């Protein structure tokens, strides 16, 4: 048996360890099977997988212990166990492997975390998101297990959910669908698209910024944020977001994001400035902080978005400097207001009339220091205290004025 990207020596050791540990079925599942078939059968370039997910009918820790017994700790490294189902991660000859006991799951309520219990390999495949991810390669028999027509959907370049309540059970699968559509160039099958539309239309929780921010289940909110983080980190995000817009799926986050003409330019600016992309995307919502809070975005980023509304109001006020004002004028004005640098950078992404001086402050002006240090001034007779700080700032602003 050969698996794309897996050394034959690793497979041989795994098979022998499974026999020794009394494991009846051990199969590689998920992305490695999907991408291997895309490579071998459809000519897609092989880019590798960061780790290999294995499902077994048996004891994952027992299998790991048998591997250590056979291969020694020099070859089996970074062994760690997680969770009540004994999920085990390790490296064998430098190849990352994840073992998980086969399980089945049920969703007590839409959007809640599932109830999980031990199961078979077949039940484990049923709980997955798409048919193309519900295939397995059994290491013991060499059989390719494809109970849901995954190979045919690979050939048709289609994303097909495994059952009619897939999106209702877990709406994060819509975000995942956009990720796979962007990465693989696949499309939602007609039935899958109808399921997305129907679920969004009847979605029982309000996601508008003016409503209660904690109404959605925290488990769902966290999963949505994690999927969005992956989308922005590893996928062609512009394509993925286009898919979500086409599917009318933005209501899962905030309906104001559905028709957002400046989205790609704004996020590209955030990327250029080294900002997290998710808050830049949310920045145009009527209350971006509330959306970020619902999604469990890190607290510091929530503060940026909270300040962003006040910064927008300030830029429309009579107190804001003229767009052509000197660097020292803009620096004094911005720093007197106490805006966090990242808030100013997010405002640059929104491209207001004053975006150029805001960008210059972010990139250059705020970094310029006084030509004389506090130690220099103290040597000249200044005492520590507010007066010393004020003089350092005066010298700094004077240097900024001369730098124009």
Provide tags for this entry.
alpha+beta; seven-stranded mixed β-sheet; elongated; 404 residues
What does this molecule look like?
By secondary structure, this protein is an alpha+beta fold. Helices cover 49% and strands 12% of the residues. A 7-stranded mixed sheet has the order 3-4-5-2-1-8-9. The radius of gyration is 27 Å and the shape is elongated. The chain starts with 7 loop residues before the first helix and ends with a helix.
Quote the beta fraction.
5-15%
Radius of gyration: 27 Å
Number of strands: 11
Helical residue percent band: 40-55%
Calculate the terminal CA-CA distance, rounded to whole Å.
69 Å
| Average pLDDT | 90
Shape: elongated
Output the structural class: alpha+beta
Stretches where pLDDT is under 50 for at least 5 consecutive residues are 207-211
Neighbour order of strands in the largest sheet: 3-4-5-2-1-8-9
Q: Helix count, per DSSP?
A: 19
Q: Provide the succession of SSEs.
A: HEHEHEEEEEHEEHEHHEHHHHHHHHHHHH
**Biggest beta-sheet profile:** 7 strands, mixed
What's this, in brief?
Helix content is 49%, strand content 12%. The protein has helices at 8-20, 31-42, 60-71, 121-126, 150-156, 166-169, 172-184, 190-201, 218-234, 237-246, 263-272, 277-282, 288-294, 299-315, 327-337, 341-350, 355-363, 374-379, 386-402, and strands spanning 25-29, 52-57, 76-82, 87-92, 95-101, 103-106, 115-118, 136-138, 144-145, 158-159, 187-188.
Topology:
Blueprint: H1 8-20, E1 25-29, H2 31-42, E2 52-57, H3 60-71, E3 76-82, E4 87-92, E5 95-101, E6 103-106, E7 115-118, H4 121-126, E8 136-138, E9 144-145, H5 150-156, E10 158-159, H6 166-169, H7 172-184, E11 187-188, H8 190-201, H9 218-234, H10 237-246, H11 263-272, H12 277-282, H13 288-294, H14 299-315, H15 327-337, H16 341-350, H17 355-363, H18 374-379, H19 386-402
Parallel strand pairs: 2-5, 10-11
Antiparallel strand pairs: 1-2, 1-8, 3-4, 4-5, 6-7, 8-9
Helix pairs in contact: 1-3, 2-5, 7-9, 7-10, 11-16, 13-14, 14-16, 15-19, 16-17
């Amino acid at each position: 048996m050969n698996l794309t990207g897996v050394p034959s020596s690793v497979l041989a050791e795994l098979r022998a360890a499974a026999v020794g540990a009394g494991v009846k079925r051990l199969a590689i599942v998920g992305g490695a099977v999907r991408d291997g078939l895309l490579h071998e059968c459809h000519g897609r370039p092989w880019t590798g997988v960061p780790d290999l997910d294995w499902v077994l009918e048996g004891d994952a820790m027992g299998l790991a212990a048998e591997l250590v017994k056979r291969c020694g700790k020099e070859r089996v490294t970074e062994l760690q166990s997680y969770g009540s189902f004994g999920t085990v991660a390790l490296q064998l000859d430098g190849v990352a492997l994840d073992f998980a006991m086969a399980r089945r799951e049920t969703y007590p309520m839409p959007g809640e975390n599932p109830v999980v219990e031990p199961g078979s390999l077949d039940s484990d495949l049923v709980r997955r998101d798409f048919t193309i991810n519900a295939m397995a390669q059994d290491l013991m028999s060499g059989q390719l297990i494809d109970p849901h027509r995954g190979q045919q959907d690979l050939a048709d370049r289609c994303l097909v959910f495994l059952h009619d309540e897939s999106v209702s059970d877990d709406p994060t699968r819509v975000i995942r669908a956009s990720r796979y559509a962007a990465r693989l160039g696949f499309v939602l099958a007609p039935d899958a698209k109808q399921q997305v539309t129907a679920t969004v239309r009847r979605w029982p929780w309000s996601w508008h910024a003016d409503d209660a921010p904690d109404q959605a289940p925290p488990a769902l909110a966290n999963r949505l944020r994690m999927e969005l983080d992956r989308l922005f980190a590893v996928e062609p995000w512009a394509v993925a977001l286009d898919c979500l817009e086409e599917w009318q799926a933005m209501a899962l986050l905030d309906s104001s994001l559905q028709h957002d003409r400046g989205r790609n330019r704004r996020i590209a600016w955030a990327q250029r400035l080294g900002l997290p992309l998710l808050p830049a995307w949310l920045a145009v919502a009527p209350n971006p902080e509330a959306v970020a809070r619902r999604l469990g975005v890190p607290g510091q980023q929530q503060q940026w978005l909270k300040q962003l509304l006040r910064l927008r109001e300030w830029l429309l006020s009579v107190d804001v400097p003229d767009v052509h004002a000197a660097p020292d004028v803009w620096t004094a004005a911005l720093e007197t207001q106490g805006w966090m640098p990242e808030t100013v950078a997010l405002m640059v992404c929104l491209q207001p009339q004053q975006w150029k001086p805001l960008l210059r402050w972010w990139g250059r002006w705020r970094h310029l220091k006084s030509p004389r240090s506090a130690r220099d001034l103290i040597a000249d007779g200044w005492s520590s205290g507010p007066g010393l700080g004020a003089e350092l700032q005066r010298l700094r602003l004077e240097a900024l004025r001369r730098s124009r």
